[in-house]
Design goal:
alpha+beta, 6-stranded mixed beta sheet, about 50% helix, about 775 residues
Length: about 775
């Protein structure tokens, strides 16, 4: 909903945390109301352990509020670094949080989302403290706060904010049951979960999915064998905080704070149990990725491939905590270097970075990603120097095989990454893949801009893409012979061309961007012939233009250099599908999913390919898997509706079709039209088709075809289309009535799809024959 910036209040001459509504949601009245509710909730509380709201501006178009800037780290980050905390420190942090909750509850508010990520810690040095270390806690983020009774702070009734709200791992049983009679004791349960995690390195309940962990909160007894690892004086309080019934918990947060303060002196001598003993019997560690619904990926007892590895997001230990993009970028570049090792599977970024900031044992991460080895470590940047500390860990026992620290100037960072990759390969007795010339030094500022640009691109909004382009062009102004930046910019321009064409239908503008992408990719390859991203960008540009033979050839070439690139397998799958080679397309999309098992967008595209193949039950599994990562995504909701309709779950399909329309995204309304029309709900289907007519032309076309008006719809299709719609022109059965119509045959010829259509029909005949046999 919102974006938070570090800013300076020029009138107060004070650093602040400035929160604004995300640009794409700025004009949404519901979001505005929620945003105001959050600001007003936070503003009601004034306490030393609660970040204060300093200003609010609700001027239309400029909605923002400024909070006290807390110059520290989150408890989540501290737990990621240390796994667990000494008992006195854990109890002191919990005491401060209890005092913050007391202040919140006094104002008639419930936080509802108490978790380590919402607790900021400021470190100070106290000579009287053991080890000289103390931390001050401040509670932040009132986005889910609600009043105990009456209208909420935005003038919206309390009932509007009921239902499940919060983070499943820390949610109280009454939150999980969506009870409306919540009070402050729900926050106390969350505090108990956090205290358990600080002491034991894991929360009280573990599960394969959010639904399962919620069920455990409601009905599974507290695991007493875990409490045996906590200090004995603390166990009665901890068990009371984690009581299923609110009436069995302490009556107030103030009472909890006082008990914790009294317990402090008795905890100094506590020796925590070994970490391995704490969670050895756990199926999954807290915060790990849920087992995706219906997934064939096993999470328990999976035997990982011996030649497989994941590069986890390296921890940012730089003095400037805001430069998270830098440590992420170093991790990404190291992943890129390792992925060149032939015959070696490297988990993709989306999946390996999923665990960033989560207190998950390395062995459990490896199990989730089905890899045999992990690279973990940290990055510390100071000026133009960088220190990279890495370790190679065996998933089988969590034992480090090798670790080292590399301190270099930033200009030599690519050489460091290649050196680390070479050492990892030697330790695993593997042959290195394609090796180019010795990496040339790169200007430190150009490298910084490049990393920040790549980090920005992950959001894929128009604003993010514009910012990414600006950063990459600045990097290339400083360092024109920078192949990685050239390849990244080429890739970005192809994305911009595709997004722009979807939005405004301008083929000429898209062509200009693709031509520049080709030129930049050519420059990159002139400096480094093995720059796989540049080759892939050329392949994507050819795919966007509709030149399938060139696209397939170029993307296959990129895969020979970087065989573990999930995005490259993904684009090859799309190109093969658009060329009528559906079997091979499905093989590559599934390979992409193997490399990136937690990517919702790859699961989304896999679902669509399986729908084209008539494998509807498998498609439903993939759609539901994608919805775990992108809940409510209109496209994935549509594929789920399509699959439900084809496996005979008609009532669910109708409801899912209606959800497609509620979610928006007219490019998939044709799925809803088809389902509603088949169910006899002609009026609803026509209404959806009418809505689609006001959107992009292909939304209108597909809805008209779904409504049985294909002959007239064909004439609306632009003859300059690109491959993004080719598969939906070839495979869906809604085209069956007109496959031999002269206009359809002519359309395919104009788009260069005659042979692809013949291959698709031949595949379909073989598939139907196989099913009949």
């Amino acid at each position: 909903m919102g974006v938070t910036y570090k800013a300076v209040d020029e009138r107060l001459k004070l650093e602040v945390a400035l929160k604004v509504i995300a640009p794409m949601r700025l004009n949404d009245p519901k979001v505005q109301a929620l945003f105001l509710r959050e600001a007003r909730a936070a503003a009601r509380v004034r306490h030393s352990h609660v970040a204060s709201v300093l200003a609010l501006d609700d001027t239309p178009g400029h909605l923002f509020y400024a909070m006290e800037f807390v110059p520290g780290i989150t408890l989540q980050a501290l737990l990621q670094e240390r796994r667990r905390l000494p008992a006195p420190l854990a109890v002191e942090i919990a005491r401060q949080v209890a005092l913050a909750l007391e202040a919140i509850h006094r104002e008639g508010l419930i936080h509802r989302d108490l978790k380590p990520a919402n607790l900021m810690l400021i470190r100070s040095v106290d000579p009287s403290a053991e080890g000289g270390e103390t931390w001050e806690a401040k509670l932040i983020d009132f986005g889910l706060a609600r009043t105990l009774e009456g209208p909420d702070l935005a003038g919206v009734s309390a009932a509007r904010t009921q239902g499940f709200r919060g983070t499943a791992t820390y949610a109280s049983p009454e939150q999980c049951l969506e009870r409306s009679d919540l009070d402050g004791r729900a926050d106390l349960y969350s505090l108990g979960c956090i205290l358990c995690e600080m002491l034991l390195g894991r929360p009280p309940f573990l599960a394969n999915s959010h639904h399962e962990v919620m069920t455990q909160h409601v009905s599974t007894p507290l695991p007493w064998h875990l409490l045996a690892g906590t200090p004995e004086p603390l166990r009665p309080l901890l068990s009371a905080l984690l009581a299923k019934e609110p009436s069995a918990r302490p009556s107030s947060a103030g009472a909890v704070a006082r008990q914790l303060e009294q317990l402090g002196p008795a905890l100094e001598a506590h020796v925590p149990p070994a970490l391995d003993g704490v969670g050895s019997d756990a199926e999954l560690a807290f915060g790990s990725a849920p087992t995706l619904v219906g997934s064939t990926r096993r999470t328990s007892g999976t035997k990982a491939e011996p030649k497989s590895i994941a590069v986890l997001a390296l921890a940012n230990l730089s003095a400037d905590r805001e430069n998270e993009y830098f440590s992420d970028g170093i991790s990404d570049e190291l992943l890129h270097a390792l992925s060149k090792i032939p015959g070696f599977r490297v988990a993709a970024r989306t999946s390996s970075f999923y665990f960033k900031g989560k207190s998950v044992p390395l062995a459990e991460v490896a199990k989730q990603l089905s890899v045999g080895y992990l690279v973990d470590g940290s990055v510390r940047r100071a000026g133009d120097r960088v220190r990279i500390s890495v370790q190679l860990v065996a998933a089988s026992d969590g034992f480090p095989i090798w670790s080292d620290t590399f301190e270099r100037e930033l200009k030599d960072v690519f050489a460091v990454q290649d050196e680390i990759a070479r050492i990892v390969a030697q330790n695993l007795q593997l042959r290195l893949g394609t090796v180019t010339e010795e990496p040339r030094p790169v200007d430190p500022e150009a490298f910084r801009l490049y990393l920040e640009g790549r980090h920005t691109l992950q959001f894929r909004t128009p604003e993010a893409m514009a910012r990414c382009e600006q950063l990459l062009r600045r990097a290339l102004t400083i360092e024109p012979q920078f192949p990685r930046a050239l390849g990244a910019l080429a890739n970005l321009l192809v994305l911009r061309a595709d997004y722009g064409f979807l939005e405004n239908g301008s083929w000429d503008s898209a062509t200009t961007l693709r031509d520049e992408a080709d030129r930049l990719a050519g420059e990159a390859l002139g400096f480094d012939a093995a720059e796989a991203e540049a080759i892939g960008a050329r392949g994507m540009a050819a795919w966007s233009r509709g030149d399938m033979p060139a696209a397939i050839q170029l993307v296959r070439e990129a895969l020979t250099i970087n065989p573990s690139s999930a995005p490259t397998h993904h684009i090859l799958a799309r190109a093969l599908g658009a060329n009528g080679q559906l079997d091979e397309s499905i093989q590559h999309i599934q390979q992409a999913l193997t490399l990136d098992p937690l990517s919702p967008r790859i699961a989304d595209n896999c679902a669509l390919a399986l729908l084209f193949a008539g494998r509807f039950a498998e498609a439903l599994v993939m759609a539901e898997r994608g919805l775990v990562g992108l809940p409510g995504d209109p496209q994935i909701v549509a594929w789920r509706a399509w699959a439900l309709g084809r496996i005979g779950r008609g009532a669910e399909a109708i409801e899912a079709a209606r959800e497609v329309i509620r979610r928006g995204g007219t490019w998939v309304y044709y799925v809803a039209c088809d389902i509603l029309l088949r169910a006899g709900l002609v009026g609803e289907a026509e209404a959806a088709a009418t809505q689609a007519a006001s959107g992009p032309v292909m939304s209108h076309v597909f809805c008209q075809v779904a409504m049985g008006r294909a002959e007239s719809a064909i004439r609306l299709i632009p003859r300059k289309l690109g491959a993004m719609f080719f598969e939906e022109l070839l495979y869906p059965p809604m085209w069956d009535p007109v496959r031999n119509h002269p206009d359809y045959v002519r359309l395919l010829a104009d788009l260069g799809l005659t042979d692809a259509h013949a291959r698709a029909l031949a595949w379909r005949a073989r598939s139907e024959s196989s099913l009949a046999g």
